[in-house]
Amino acid sequence: MPWWGVASALLANVLYSTGFVLEKRALAALPALSTRQPARVIGHLLSSPLWLGGSLALAAGFAAQLAVYRTLPLAAAQGIFVSGLVLLLLLSSVVLGERTSGRERRSIVAILVALVLVVASLRGEDARAVARTAPPTTLLVIAVPSLAAGLLLYRSAERRARRRHRLPTAGVPYGVAVGLLYGVSSLAIKGVSGLLTTHDVPAAAGQLFRSPYPYLLLFTGAAGLVLSQTALQRCRASVIVPVCTTVTCVFTVVCGTVAFGEPLPADPLRLALRLGGTAVAVTVLLALPRHDTPPGPRAPETPGPRVAAPTVRPPSAQPRPRSSAPISPEFPGVEP
């Protein structure tokens, strides 16, 4: 049983969840971000110490993810990464004060079921089946259309969000778009982890820079930074991050298995457990609401007996007191 890989994946979950929550809290204090001004977005982010702390936590999670991909197959690693959503939802509720709906709480249960299924499918010999590299042509055929689809989906979500008289989006389209970018990034991380070695470092570095992995990481890192932080500022972290993580998981399992050629378990029971965990992850995505519930109307006051308020007249409208003095005959209406 590759326990080191499981421990590294759980550590990555803690670091990623902590990083996202810190970044979300920092974004609340920053001016409104716009994807049309990426340089300004990066400038605002780098000026926030709290955001920098969150980004350092994410960087540490990235390092733990490299260790995971060297010891666990893609399908198993992604199934464990999904379990980090439980911690994320708990932290967003406690630290950020975001209220989770009943549907989202049921999704937490489904996530835990997915984790149990995937971990139960692991065996010690899985580490020997971990692939190191993927054919560059196959990788690019998968990555380029996926990146284009993610950018187009994000742009479409931006246009819909600018329409007036529209329900506020819960962030699902943004999460799917960013999840596609991070899915490609996950494949690149997998490729980088396979080329890292302490033997003959110059040759390994040359092989790395001749591969498409570092360039995919550079693009998805820069684009994902601007898009994810803009979306995270507008929508709840408890929706954006679970959707993004689920899409990344499913994309990496399906496309990564094809690109890297990692075999699925031959045992029917283990195969069913691993595929079942992935299916539950998809169910989590479909169960999440597409829109935030708008604030409802104020509750009507309890009816009761009406009491007429006393009428107060202005001084000019007050009746003039009648005088008992006789009226002057020379000037009628004028008292002598």
Fold and architecture overview:
- Helices cover 66% and strands 0% of the residues.
- The protein has twelve helices and no strands.
- The relative contact order is 0.14.
Q: What order do the helices and strands follow? A: HHHHHHHHHHHH
| SS elements, strand count | 0
Task: Describe the largest sheet.
Answer: none
Radius of gyration: 31 Å
The shape is: globular
Give the CA-CA distance, first to last residue: 117 Å
Low-confidence stretches: 294-304, 327-336
Keywords:
336 residues; 66% helix; globular; disordered C terminus
Provide a brief overview of the structure.
By secondary structure, the chain is an all-alpha fold. The protein has 12 helices and no strands. Mean pLDDT is 79; it is low at 294-304 and 327-336.
Strand and helix map with partners:
Blueprint: H1 3-27, H2 38-46, H3 49-71, H4 74-82, H5 84-94, H6 102-120, H7 136-161, H8 172-195, H9 201-209, H10 213-234, H11 237-260, H12 268-287
Helix pairs in contact: 1-3, 1-4, 1-5, 3-8, 4-6, 4-11, 4-12, 5-11, 6-12, 7-8, 8-10, 8-11, 11-12
